[in-house]
Amino acid sequence: MNRIATLFLAGFLLADCAGQKSPDAYGVFEAAETMVSAEVSGKLIHLDLLEGQLLRKGQHVATVDSTLPALQKQELLARRQSVRAKMVNAEAQIAVVQQQIDNMQVDLQRVRNMLQDDAATRKQLDDLVGADKILNKQLNAARAQRQTVVAELAAVNSNLDLISEQMRRCRVINPIDGTVLNKYCEAFEMTAAGKPLYKIANLDEMTLRIYISGAQMSAVKIGSSCTVRIDDGKKYIDYPGTIIWISDSAEFTPKIIQTKQDRVTLVYAVKVRVANDGAIKIGMPGEVIFTRPSE
């Protein structure tokens, strides 16, 4: 409510410029502010930013101590090497048994041919058939062992992905282009997941929040242009603006308007987007002149 009160005071202060069009509404400038937090808890071993500094999207600005997950990653990498060695052994065992089975099939066919010529006995054939069954069971066991190793390797890789993600989250990456408004931590302090490190806003584009009466609603449409004006202390400066949002519900005017009649007047909030050349600051008062169809 204090901000709403400020914009009405600003309106009266800006209304004394002779020869200028009377403004249709008053307000204060805002910017889309983003609170940037760490995603993990720990000690900040690196924090490279200052209030007022311009940061780029994707810029690495802070690092939380990642010693523990780094050690866990090394352990998992060694474990993966061991599991891969098991995989090689399992594959070799399968290959050996498969070769034995192939050889057994040759022997079986030879004995069957000899049996037809009465050059071999039925017992010899039965012994080979029994040995073939044992080899097939060994092959199935070797394949089952390989599947166990495959599952173990998948678990290790999954844990590695988890640790890698934890280490990635130890790096704080700036999410947007903008200017650092506030800094809440210093390097080597302890931080926690979700605790704000700094606040940033893109000041290249500002939003002027104004309030209009119901009678003015017909002159305001989303996407329509308007003129935004600020007072630099010596003269007015005009900027082109675009209406980007209109509240769908009314609210009471602030109590700073002392007359009983004005206090019960309902107004609608409107947001106007303005390109900033650096002269517009957050919290600065501004005024708006709507564009009429005849203009």
What would you say this structure looks like, in words?
- By secondary structure, the chain is α+β, with helices and mostly antiparallel strands.
- The protein folds into three domains: 118 residues, Elongation Factor Tu (Ef-tu), domain 3, CATH 2.40.30; 58 residues, OB fold (Dihydrolipoamide Acetyltransferase, E2P) (Beta Barrel); 103 residues, Helix Hairpins (Orthogonal Bundle), CATH 1.10.287.
- The chain is built from four helices and 15 strands.
- It has a six-stranded antiparallel barrel with strand order 1-10-14-12-11-15. A four-stranded antiparallel beta sheet has the order 2-9-7-4, with no helix packed on it.
- The longest helix has 50 residues.
Helix content: 25-40%
Structural class: alpha+beta
Classify the beta-strand content into a percent band: 25-35%
Low-confidence stretches: 4-18
Radius of gyration: 38 Å
Return the domain count: 3
* SSE arrangement, N to C: HEEEEEHHEEEEEEEEHEE
CATH superfamily of the largest domain: Efflux pump adaptor protein, beta barrel domain
Q: Overall mean pLDDT score?
A: 88
Please list the strands of the largest sheet in the order they lie side by side. 1-10-14-12-11-15
Q: Mind telling me the CATH class of the largest domain?
A: Mainly Beta
Count of DSSP strands = 15
Separation of the first and last Cα atoms: 34 Å
Second CATH tier, the architecture of the largest domain: Beta Barrel
